[in-house]
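Incident log, support desk, overnight shift.

02:14 A customer reports that sequence design results differ from what the structure should imply. Their input is reproduced verbatim below. On-call engineer (initials T.W.) acknowledged and began investigating.
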């Protein structure tokens, strides 16, 4: 009975799951029942390093073989079994154990985690399902996506496997609110229909960097934008007028920028902010105006504030949101 290790596994178009293995003990023959991890099958064909068909492989021989019903992970051990029924039973038990282990290792919210998220503020998560044609590509892509995580946005790869995107992947994505990423694979007709029905996003790529860049852009969109204050105008109060039923009107000279009637303003006296709010009126002469450019005089009133003195500075500002990048 032969045994050894899996070097790589992939989904070969037209042929199915192809596992490249290194035989370490015994001999592997075409027709043998093989088990590796949670996958099993009967060896249908074997190919040497030159792509030529071979009937058997002895110790220290690398071969690619067809027949497994899935793609085992690189480094997984394989064994040749005498009975196919026994191999199927062991594979099913292993699959069940992997599923239970996955459920047990899922992180649930703790008080510390809730506290951390409250402290950070708007904490977000991006759940991803990764399917690819080669085990190495799936692992490399998954690791690259996880490394894109930040303090505010965490990337979780909730499932990764070799193979076409199936209906069960779409169901998992629906339950986990996840995005499906396919690398060099396509969804089945049933999976495509289910994704359209449930509104699940399936992104397909053939270049790893394209995938990483698009996910990075998506994470940047999830980050809260930085808010920056921008001063749009400054005006000096030259004299004040008290008008009954209106309040105090400041006669100003616009020093810089353009003072607009809808601007947020603050009143500064001796370098100290004494009022922050909006303008109640802005006029030139007797006419109400929408804006006054630099170098022009104007009259303006502050909303529900009358304590204005000559020499005060009225500063107009706006809050600008700046998109954050990683």
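02:41 Re-run completed on a clean worker. Output:
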């Amino acid at each position: 009975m032969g045994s050894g290790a899996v070097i790589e596994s992939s989904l070969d178009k037209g042929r199915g799951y192809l596992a490249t293995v290194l035989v370490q003990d015994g001999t592997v023959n075409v027709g043998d029942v093989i088990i590796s991890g949670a996958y099993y099958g009967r060896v249908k064909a074997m190919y040497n390093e030159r792509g030529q068909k071979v009937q058997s492989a002895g110790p220290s021989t690398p071969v690619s073989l067809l027949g497994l019903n899935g793609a085992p992970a690189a480094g997984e051990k394989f064994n040749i079994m005498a009975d196919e029924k026994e191999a199927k039973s062991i594979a099913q038990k292993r699959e069940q154990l992997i599923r239970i282990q996955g459920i047990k290792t899922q992180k649930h919210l703790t008080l510390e985690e809730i506290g951390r998220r409250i402290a950070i503020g708007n904490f977000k998560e991006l759940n991803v399902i990764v399917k690819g044609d080669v085990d190495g590509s799936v692992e490399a892509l998954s690791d690259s996506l996880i490394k894109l995580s930040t303090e505010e946005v965490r990337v979780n790869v909730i499932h990764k496997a070799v193979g076409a995107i199936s209906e069960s992947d779409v169901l998992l994505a629906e339950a986990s609110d996840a995005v499906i990423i396919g690398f060099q694979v396509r969804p089945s007709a049933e999976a495509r229909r289910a994704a359209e029905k449930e509104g699940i996003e399936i992104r397909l790529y053939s270049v790893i960097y394209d995938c990483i860049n698009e996910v990075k852009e998506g994470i940047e969109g999830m980050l809260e934008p930085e808010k920056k204050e921008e001063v749009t105008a400054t005006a000096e109060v030259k004299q004040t007028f008290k008008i009954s039923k209106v309040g105090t009107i400041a006669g100003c000279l616009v020093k810089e920028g353009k003072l607009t009637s809808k601007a947020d303003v603050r009143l500064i006296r001796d370098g100290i902010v004494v009022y922050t709010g909006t303008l109640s009126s802005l006029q030139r002469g007797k006419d109400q105006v929408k804006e006054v450019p630099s170098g022009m005089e104007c009259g303006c009133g502050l909303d529900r504030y009358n304590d204005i003195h000559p020499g005060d500075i009225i500063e107009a500002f706006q809050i600008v949101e700046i998109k954050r990048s990683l």
